[in-house]
Amino acid sequence: IKPIYESTFAKLKAADIDQEVKERAITCMGQIVYTFGDHMQSELQVSLPLLLDRLRNEITRLTCVKAITKIASSQFKLNLNPLLPEAFPVLASFLRKNQRALKLSSLQLIDTLVKNYRDYLSSETIGIILNEVPPLINESDLHISQLTLNMLTSLIRSHLAFLAIIPQTILPEALVLV
């Protein structure tokens, strides 16, 4: 795996390469970490901050969200300290964007992170996410509404302290769907 990782990392790190090569490098790195993450703890300390940088880049963010979703759904309990909790405010801001694919992927990623890495979520981070959620629950896009409600359900299950807060802010929007 070392030669594959090093080759992919070199492409991921390069700034002057074609857009398609960047996206493939991000996707490949996500797959490498997903599959071999338990054998590459030292490499994670270098590659995850780079993925965070790519997450902040407007051109590569959708591909990066999908790659991080893959990483977060790995069967291994990986150390995502270099990536989380800094990624949560960035992901929350994506819920505001007018790109449907980015919203859908971000909701799936947040849900996966809440289920598998809930220890990285602070009350402040949850508050940032909850501020972006109410406009997503509406009848104009039921798929986004469904993913939002799924994510909120996961959030309530993992952080019971928000059991009283989430229904207060979300229930009015959810009742409009009924």
UniProtKB/TrEMBL annotation:
The keyword Repeat applies. InterPro entries: ARM-like, ARM-type_fold, CAND1/CAND2. GO terms for biological process: SCF complex assembly. It comes from the Eukaryota. It holds the Pfam family TPR_CAND1. Gene3D superfamilies: Leucine-rich Repeat Variant. Keywords: Repeat, Ubl conjugation pathway. This is Cullin-associated and neddylation-dissociated protein 1. It comes from Oppiella nova. The lineage of its organism: Eukaryota, Metazoa, Ecdysozoa, Arthropoda, Chelicerata.
